[in-house]
Every structure is written in C-alpha cells, then in structure tokens.
Amino acid sequence: MVFLGIVPKVFLFAFPYTLLAFYLNSYCGVWTPRLPTIGALLVAVGIALWLFCYTQISRAYRRRELLTSGCYSRVRHPIYSIWGLLILPGFSLVIGGFMLGLLVVYWTVVMRIIGEEEKALEERFDDEWREHTKRTSRFLPRV
Q1: In this predicted model, what pLDDT tens digit does every residue of 52-81 receive, in sequence order?
Q2: Tally of domains in the chain
Q3: Cβ–Cβ contacts within 10 Å for residue 133, how many?
Q4: What is the pLDDT of residue 34?
Q5: Angle between helices 36-62 and 88-95 (to 10 degrees)
Q6: What contacts 76, CB < 8 A, 6 or more positions away?
Q7: Does the pLDDT of residue 32 top 80, yes or no?
C-alpha cells in the first residue's frame, strides 16, 4: 500500500469541484453567509492536528508498523476526519457559496473508497488490523 492511501482518488474528485465552485461563486452571484473568522479558526486547528497525526503515521509507515496509539488509538482514519470535519469546512466557511458543497463531495468519495484502503491494511497487517478495527471506529471516537 502506498503512503498516500486514498488521497489521490479523493483529490481527483474534490479538486475539480473546488475549481467549479470558485467559478460558480464568481459568475453566479449567489449569496451565502460567510464566516471567515470561524472558518480560519477551524482551518488553523485542523492543520495543527493534521501535522500531529501526520508525524505519527509517517514514523510508523517508515517502520512498517500499524499505528494503534496516539491519534490512531480511538479512530482508524483521523487524518480523513480532520480534513472532513475541520479543514475543509473551515475553508468552505471562509469562501462560502458553492464551496460549501465540497464537504458533500469529500465525504461521498471517502465513504465510497475507504474500503480499498482498509482492505490493503488488512492484507498487510492481518490480525493486528482486525483487532484494531474492533477497538476503533472509522472517523469519530466511540462514545
């Protein structure tokens, strides 16, 4: 499995939508509320958390280990969660308009293809991965 997981496939859908949203925002003149301060705060928190998780997963990947501690101790895919719950919503709140639809595109694509990454992880880590899936949820910590 490659280090980037499903990110390139998600990008293939999200980036064209982002360009379309910028175009539609510019030429359609649709007004939607923008919350740039809240959006910027979400992006800043998201980037800090993303860097923390990225550092952890990078080390584990280099060691060819399944990371089950730190930010991966309660959620199997915290980086996708951070992007889908903090960074992209924050970015969308700053831009407004059709950019708000980016969240729908992102989560639709992630939910449709996350199984590919999980299958590759199961093939690579076998029982260790299956045990990890029993203890954790995909995107949000269990309550």
Answers
A1: 999 999 999 999 999 999 999 999 999 999
A2: 1
A3: 13
A4: 79
A5: 150
A6: 118, 132, 133, 136, 137, 138, 139
A7: no
Q: Which of 50-54, 93-97, 113-117 has the lowest mean pLDDT?
A: 93-97
Determine the Cα–Cα distance for residues 81 and 83; give it in Å rounded to an integer.
5
What pLDDT, on a 0 to 100 scale, did the predictor assign at position 143? 76
Residue 72 lies in a domain: yes
Q: Provide the residue range defining the domain that includes 104.
A: 35-133
Residue 125 lies in a domain: yes
pLDDT band at 26 (very low <50, low <70, confident <90, very high): confident
Q: What is the DSSP letter of 137?
A: B
Written as one string, the DSSP assignment of 48-99 is HHHHHHHHHHHHHHHTT----SGGGSSBS-HHHHHIIIIIHHHHHHHH-GGG
- Based on the number of CB atoms within 10 Å of its own CB, is 37 exposed (0-12), middle (13-18) or buried (19 or more)? exposed
| Pairwise CA distance, residues 119 & 4, whole Å | 15
Position 21 in a domain: no
Is 9 inside a domain boundary? no
Nearest CA-CA partner of 129 in 39, 46, 81, 65: 65
pTM above 0.85, yes or no: yes
